[in-house]
Specification:
The protein contains 10 helices and no strands. Helix 1 runs parallel beside helix 5, helix 3 packs antiparallel against helix 5 and helix 3 packs across helix 9. The protein is elongated, with a radius of gyration of 26 Å.
Length: 298
Amino acid sequence: MSPPDLSSPLDAPPRRRIDVVPRRSAAAASRLALAALIRRDLTVLKKNFGEFAGRTVMQPFLLVFVFLYVFPVIGQGIGSAGGPKGESAFATVLVPGVVSIAIMFQGIQSVAIQMSQEFGYTREIEDRVQAPCPIWLVAVARVLSGAVQGLISALIVLPIAAVVHAPGVHPDLHVHWWIVLTLIPLACLAMTSLGLLLGTTFEPRNIGVMFGFVVLPLVFLGGTYYQWTALSPVHIGGFHWLQVLVLVNPLIYISEGMRAGFTDLSRMSLYAVYPVLLGFCALFLGLGLRNFRRRVLS
């Protein structure tokens, strides 16, 4: 039997401290997770691009086909009292409005409806929030990928809206590039932020209520078919109530901004359009992120 080891622990060689240093900072890991979530959504979009394009084109195409082709041909065109000149004037008003509602619908479809489904029966949101990033960043990824889809929808819809019209009807379009290149991305972000707010507010069973009480008023009071400045004749005792009422509608600022970008028509000042759109974007995104966190943690 070997004798017991009576050496002092002080005689043992000192142990080295092992420090584990993360290869990435938390911010870098969050950026990588955000990029991965966006790439995932864009990969799904690429695989289903035919369905996306058909969904994007259908409503704007029908709008311009009916209002700018069918109605003028059968003699019921809006502005037809002024002949082709009046019909062309309406076409000039309508084309930017069609691009605006394409961006709005894409923002709602790509974020609100998808988010509602993920919180509903698919429960896909449970997989997304396991990404190595803060919960709010998962929602931001959905907003950014939806904004890219809105941008693509604008690029698809604009040529169709500009060329589908009856003989003799010619929209008078003049592209102001600095407005187009700044306003369209801002509009896409604002509408996908609205989609995040709606998707985290309405339950899947209430999607019909959302379209009936939110989306339809936005479309018809959003300046799609008319200029904001043309509403001045609607007044009570000198109070232009409709012009004031539609100012709570974010779509009116997008429509007016699009008219500034694609036409030389009279419209709302850009000094109002850009700040208000930025404000709506911040408001919708802030409320949407708050609702998203509550829904995930509940």
